[in-house]
Design a protein that fits this description.
10 helices, single chain, seven-stranded mixed β-sheet, Spore Coat Polysaccharide Biosynthesis Protein SpsA, Chain A
């Protein structure tokens, strides 16, 4: 980018307001969006919520979709229910992983996706589904590369307890201070990206759990990609089994890894052999470049 070696002009469009979003162009014929729903022991709500999601997408999405239920080593009847859903509803499929980790599930699905846009949302549907089309529209039109919902942007409507609110705000404040993040809500379980962009970033993302989101967004920001962040309506699931303190501590460790990463200690993700970045010199070089970018905050 002439006269803009760090991609600041592209990055300056990172946080658009709802009013600043450009209208989406009509979706190309045959356009496909994949919605991944990572699940762990969600037997109580999975069937009802998948039916609700499928009904919404069928009625409101002007292009094709597939829902992938990615079971993360559940110990209840979650996968059996997911398989039943795949037999009952067109465009629903179920996969099972024998290890836990939201990042692991997303990597598994996204790296082999044939859709034009990949996305994910939490199984509890805490985010209002009316936000999904506005989330993916800038990706379909080509105006953005990644998109993420935010519970902390102006205009968001959030119902959750004070403990979770404080931890979330503190974590995202630290991201801005330590890593110069320009997005407001790294951990919101409501994200999407153009598949070609996501596949290019995945080999350089190491985390397999909750920090996966933050690492993906930071890498995208450092590369000057266009990230559309939109306020959402979000209601906390009172039955959530997420240990927010343990998750926050893991996120802090991830943040420290990115901040103090060095060329000699951080390596690209070592996935299945056919996907390993180490087998492709260009991908390996790109990951090393990304490590250098991630190791220090941006200079303005």
């Amino acid at each position: 980018m002439d006269g803009d070696p760090h991609g600041h002009r592209a990055a300056n469009s990172l946080l658009l307001t709802r009013d600043g979003q450009q209208p989406a162009a009509p979706a190309p014929t045959g356009f496909l969006v994949e919605v991944t729903v990572p699940v762990y022991n969600e037997a109580k709500v999975l069937a009802e919520n998948v039916r609700q999601l499928h009904s919404y997408l069928t009625a409101n999405l002007p292009f094709g979709f597939v829902i992938t239920i990615a079971d993360n080593a559940s110990t209840d009847e979650t996968f059996a229910i997911a398989e039943r859903m795949s037999g009952e509803l067109a465009g629903v499929r179920a996969i099972h992983l024998d290890r836990k980790g939201r990042g692991r599930a997303l990597r598994h699905v996204w790296s082999s996706s044939t859709a034009d846009v990949v996305s994910y949302m939490d199984a509890d549907l805490s985010t209002g589904l009316d936000a999904f089309l506005p989330l993916v529209a800038p990706l379909v039109s080509g105006h953005s590369d990644l998109a993420t919902g935010s519970r902390l942007s102006p205009g968001a409507t959030v119902v959750r307890g004070p403990k979770r609110e404080i931890i979330s705000r503190a974590y995202n404040l630290l991201l801005r201070i330590v890593l110069a993040a320009r997005f407001s809500d790294a951990q919101c379980g409501f994200k999407a990206g153009r598949t070609e962009v996501i596949k290019a970033l995945l080999p350089c993302v190491q985390d397999e759990a909750w920090f996966f989101d933050t690492e993906l967004l930071m890498l995208a920001q450092r590369r000057g990609l266009r990230i559309w962040e939109m306020p959402i309506t979000w209601v906390e699931d009172p039955d959530s089994t997420v240990d927010i303190v343990r998750t926050a501590l893991a996120d802090l460790r991830g943040m420290a890894r990115l901040r103090f990463a060095s060329r000699g200690t951080r390596r690209p993700y070592r996935g299945p052999r056919r996907l390993r970045a180490g087998n492709r010199p260009d991908a390996r070089t790109a990951c090393r470049s990304a490590e250098k970018e991630l190791a220090a905050p941006e200079q303005h």
